[in-house]
Amino acid sequence: MRATIGLSLCVLTLAALASGCRRHRPDGLEGCTPGVVYVVACDNEGVGRCSGDPVIRVCDGVETAESCAALSSGFLAQDDDSGGGLCPRTTATCPPTGAFTVTSRAFGSGSFACDWRVEPVGGGGPLPAPDGGE
Question: Which tens digits make up the pLDDT trace of 59-68?
Answer without folding.
Answer: 999 999 999 9
